[in-house]
Amino acid sequence: MGVIDVYNASSLYMMDIQCRSCCYSSLPRLSPTSYFQGNRSLVRCMASTLPIKHVDDGRKQLTGDSFIRPHLRELSPYQPILPFEVLSTRLGRKPEDIIKLDANENPYGPPPEVLEALGAMRFPYVYPDPESRRLRAALAEDSGIESDYILVGCGADELIDLIMRCVLEPGDKIVDCPPTFTMYAFDAAVNGALVIKVPRKEDFSLNVEHIAEVIQQEKPKCIFLTSPNNPDGSIINDEDLLKILDLPILVVLDEAYIEFSGMESKMTWVKKHENLIVLRTFSKRAGLAGLRVGYGAFPLSIIEYLWRAKQPYNVSVAAEISACAALQNPTYLEKVKDALVQERERLYMLLKEVPFLNPYPSYSNFILCEVTSGMDAKKLKDDLAHMGVMIRHYNNKELKGYVRVSVGKPEHTDALMKCLKAWM
Ligand SMILES: Cc1ncc(COP(=O)(O)O)c(C=O)c1O
């Protein structure tokens, strides 16, 4: 049984993966045994004994899980989210009658060109282009950076994992700034890395001084920053970002929601900063969450290795066709984005009037609310679900008694407000 001395417990926290912040409420949890000794936090890796099954005749036999990598045996079992159809049966409502404000999806869906292009798909039986050339050329036009700097993935999720696979040795450290998107901590666990948490300040801004200290003391390999941040919707200002970019660490800037912020993407910055990667996605901006297309801008000195390590056919023919078709209708994308931003402002004003909610201003397509006045956030989420409105509930170390509401169409806001009034 190995014991890894992770860090000084006075200022840092060990990882505690709750679930990914955007949509899945029940991904695997890592449960390393951690304890304190003096002022140091120690983590026990309990994986050196191979699981053995005793068979009837007294012989001992290795069990299948003995072949699994030790650190993965520490992950709790995967609990998949309910497919939409199953959810609809469980709630006794037709899928179209469920108001889904729990996963920051784009309720307008993609431009009509996407379904037309999918219907006209000619070669679904041929493997896709491993270099996604058509899409990368279209993204170069869309983003203003040459396609050599761009790599496409099966969602931004795949790129987060791919970056970690290329960068982290088992035992390496990453910096995570919770509350934030929990896939960074989850993927780090799968890749055998340790997570140093530097919690955000009360207003959800980054604690840059603490980040700098941790980088100096712990020498982590990379830091994941999210702007706008999921789940609170705050953005990172350029001054803070530049300070962190000056430190000896690879900065992965996740811009999954950048379109709703009114800010320019930092994709072109990767030409000036050898330690910056910028990630984006079609899931939110183009309503293509189900088709799984994400992309990133990388320094040329890094992208070369991602090309070597990625699965050759990571972006399906359908995904590439859809993303290209979506980019052909920028007017639609802009219109939908404007509608969501406008609705966000209306939703914020309405939530402010609810006596037991304290909503936070957001630059994204969701609004985080503290549930106040002694009301139970989990009960609120459950009761709304029975009324056909899904929202996200938080009950972890950084966010206890909070809910997050995705911005929907105006009629979704109206239905939510009606249910909140009925609940009071
Ligand atoms: C901050 C953040 N990054 C990345 C993703 C994943 O994006 P994709 O759907 O492209 O995998 C999400 C999903 O909600 C997210 O909230």
Please outline what is shown here.
The chain is of the alpha/beta class and 424 residues long. The protein is built from 14 helices and 18 strands.
CATH topology of the largest domain: Aspartate Aminotransferase, domain 2
Tell me the radius of gyration.
22 Å
Structural class: alpha/beta
Helical fraction: 25-40%
Terminal Cα span = 53 Å
Number of domains: 2
Mean pLDDT: 88
Bound molecules: pyridoxal-5'-phosphate
Which parts are unreliable, with pLDDT below 50 for 5 consecutive residues or more? Answer: 1-21, 23-48
**DSSP summary: helix tally:** 14
Which keywords apply here?
seven-stranded mixed β-sheet, Aspartate Aminotransferase, domain 1, 424 residues, 14 helices, 18 strands, 2 domains, 19% strand, Aspartate Aminotransferase, domain 2, alpha/beta, disordered N terminus, binds pyridoxal-5'-phosphate, 34% helix
Please characterize this protein's 3D structure.
The protein has 424 residues and is of the alpha/beta class. The chain has two domains: 70-104 and 332-423, Aspartate Aminotransferase, domain 1 (Alpha-Beta Complex), CATH 3.90.1150.10; 112-329, Aspartate Aminotransferase, domain 2 (3-Layer(aba) Sandwich), CATH 3.40.640.10. The protein has helices spanning 70-73, 84-91, 112-119, 133-143, 155-167, 183-190, 208-218, 238-245, 282-285, 300-309, 317-327, 330-352, 377-386, 410-423, and strands spanning 2-8, 33-37, 40-45, 52-54, 60-62, 99-100, 150-153, 173-176, 194-197, 222-226, 250-254, 276-281, 294-297, 357-359, 366-371, 389-390, 392-395, 400-406. Strands 7-13-12-11-10-8-9 form a seven-stranded mixed beta sheet, with helices on both faces. α5 (155-167) crosses α6 (183-190). The chain is globular, with a radius of gyration of 22 Å. The model is unreliable at 1-21 and 23-48 (pLDDT under 50). Pyridoxal-5'-phosphate binds at residues 21-23, 104, 155-157, 181, 226, 230, 254, 256, 281, 283, 289, 294. Its EC number is 2.6.1.9.
